[in-house]
């Protein structure tokens, strides 16, 4: 009963099969192979973005931080939510890769930036002068770190604010599939049609072993990116094995089916929380449940072997109700979900 | 009537005289000259710290950022007030020099960090793991960015919290003289006796042209620092001209007399603010006045030619009362102070 | 007939099987899984180094550059051969990760550093002062970029020179298996017993998809390394899939058998070169052949579909004899080797 | 008798007078002062470059390294002479500021790059791909580190090679005055008319205390430079005191007169070397003499109290003839020059 994270779970059989299929004799290295070409094309197609530049890396931190360095100078200001993964969970990777950019963090309900806070912050940035640095990038996460999902219209509103200030918009899509599946829109509607300039399209949390795609919708934004990826040690020599994972997920739409499964499991937990007298800390719109549950329920779940995190950290141990984060993956066993749901619902 | 900043004013005649005196034929470069030796010794003596390592640089940003890089790895967490100069006014220099350290900013009344907020933040940091980075440094500014002054006991309390967490304490002393003169303590009581590990001892805002001393009270903290200073382009070949400035200020205690003059001028303005129906936004303990003054008073001051900043920025124009920052230097003319005070007092 | 590089070839079936086996439900992420623990232990055992710290990354560039950053400050001097991979083929990754370290390159026959050139260079470095930076690291590659192999005694002589100068020795072992198999020694004799302090133990060129181990023989050298790896985006969330690859290669000694196969294939080509009137440009001691072959032979090889690089680059096209680099992998088909050998031998 | 370096000597009285004159009450900080405006204009005029962007910093290392970072990405290749100051004497500052750029060093007689070596190196760079990085900048020093001077035509030939390869040309002019005075051309002929894109115009070695100007002839090259300078801690708050130094040197042509004096003194020493049976190691075209002098002459010079460096370092002690570097400044006393010349001439 592991609900600690979606990355605690495994790889989809189709991914393993794709790796085996890609293991087909000699191919040129460093991305000059047919698997990479097919995978890049598949992602462009999934995004309806025939001009986009697509590149693969193996971790979400690498994807995000390389985009930050690509789009921000060392003296740049990168605007993000105060709970953004790039701020809280990447050990300073954006600062390291960009050589000093400053993350300007903003509050926002349900883990979301809002135009009402972003616009004034960009105005402050525009007047920050040499002291404060140069506004360079706005970054949002979708699905967010609180399991909520920006609808395309919300993305568009933030993109408008960013573009008015002359800076591009980045979407950290470590759980991009969960967001798109939840919103019921197309991948294009969620991204470039709404004004997203750069997308990190996550595979790892959605059935890959370790694979993420970095997408620049405007090729001009990608100039020199291959050098950055190389200099950071993120170009695989046998890149076919990176590309094959994304190819398996994207071709045929597997990524959306897996994400929808994970979302549905979280929904089941969310309903159980409410039924059991708990309170959702944020709307459950993707594959994570943030909830305050009765301490007694928490104790029973733990006793039953359920693994999940107290939120935001262990210091919450002992509180009643207990604030918790429970994350579902496409392959979280249905039986586990049912069992935890029963406990949460008070049965 | 310039109250925009203490760095809008000039250099003390003694500093100019010291430069002329140092211009005495050939000396070895890069700090291997007798002026540098004397200046380092003078600062060690002023601090009663015979073992301290003292080095000179030309700007406060360089001093602070080099200390940050010296004491924090790229993956370090540096704790500071949310209004700290290193956060708001150095264009990301600490992140740049350290290669990615993260400034963890904390709120605090009157521009001061308090142990009650620092301790929990250090606890969060201790549990932040690889995601959040490694707690590396606590940095305070004295006098603060709000013109207030930490008393030695307050410094000691913060040092205790830092040291319990295993991290050193840095004091940004761009206005160190103003702080010491205000507190009426010795420079040693304000620093190493209270637990400060590294001090940026500012000269520029206190009568120098451009000179700051970096002081490590424990020589072990200074290992390799000379290389960092050199690699950052902050080693002067004719270093005697940097050292001579600090020597002129420190030898004979000129620095404290100048700081006391500046403080007294600010005190006069503060009293006028109160007399004139304005409100001090923070206690005036050094050479800066933060106040909300009647819009009409503000208009009259402007009309009279007074230069100062609205606070925190121009967006405050038009407010009533008007939030303003007025800074005095040792050489702000007494007549200017009297004239502005009269306006502030409503005469 | 692909002899372009060993990374043009695939992954060993045992590696694929290990990935499938590791895909076994939920495990904790970021290395806190049993596969990682087993793989780290297997490498410590293969190296007879029970105290060593072992960490996994996905590329050789990441492995090398992270070691450089770990062992050199930004102002460090890293001594290496002028043809070292870290100098010629990593796009400045060591400088990027270390934040400015300088690679001091030295000539040397057959791609090898020699104590006779290293010692004077370290002496120059010791006197380089602030201008030249601080000697920080010596780095060698084994097997070298010219396909030669340092014997343990040669490694020991370089380690002695480095240690006399107070700096550690790094071995870039992208082809570590090829070196050990060639030298006929133990992995321990090739490394820590000869004085190596840090090893990059390559898997990718020897049957893995993308997996390298970084090994610090003295745990003190590894302090903070996990943060560096994380900040660089090189910590996999599902790390079991990285570790499983190395585990498959190391457990049971597969890595040495595969390397020996590749070496033997190169030996066959080398003999053919000589038989066919070509000249070896360096002794063939691992899995790469550097040779000057008759232009006519080169033309026939190309016509037969053989893929390999002119050396050092395409500008050599048209020379007679033609300087070429031919690399064998464990899975280069025996038929391809025989066919190319026949051409090289002039049959 | 100090001939160790031109930075062992002092500041010109006009510089001191200019500092005193600039110490005139309040001015706005950070370059928004009239002295800075006048100094920038004076340099534009001296260079006949009305569109050029001029900025001041306090050290030559800062000037050079900031230009490198401005014109090269982290993955850039910067081509320079193997004895270039940026390679040998800046502790890795270009790598540090640029975040990883690689200095590609080339040999060349008399400390000069030649088109015949630069062009092939740029060709190699153009084919270096991701492994080798992106050609970004060519950097030359004038006067060179060997005391020689590129004539405008030589600069133009190198600029042509650089521009053909699509990269700009930087001139490290720490001794720019010595070069221009020696060549007898205009500052414009030596720079932008010959194709120089960025110039570091040195003041420190030519009568300033610590002042250098960075000049970008094409304003497009300067975009964002002010942020870089600020983030590196190289923006003075009281910038008038930096600008005043350059103003004093440039207005009225003092810089060229001082440089010519220093050059003439070196010429006197050079003639004495030859007369006394020594051999010049490079043509003496500026203010430094590199010579092999009889050991006995060396001993007599030392005994007489002459200070200068053995070349390239102390390891040359004891050689006969003794390789030495002797540098003259504008203020090296004529008597010292005469006395050393007499010894060198064997009198």
From TrEMBL, chains A, B, C, D:
Family recorded in the similarity comment: Belongs to the threonine aldolase family.
Keyword Nucleotide-binding: no
GO molecular function terms listed in the Swiss-Prot or TrEMBL record: lyase activity
Domain Aromatic amino acid beta-eliminating lyase/threonine aldolase: 3-292
GO biological process: amino acid metabolic process
Coiled coil: none
Pfam families on file: Beta_elim_lyase
Essential cofactor(s): pyridoxal 5'-phosphate
Record carries keyword rRNA-binding: no
Quaternary structure and interacting proteins, as annotated: Homotetramer.
Protein name: L-threonine aldolase
Keywords assigned: Pyridoxal phosphate
Cross-referenced SUPFAM superfamilies: PLP-dependent transferases (SSF53383)
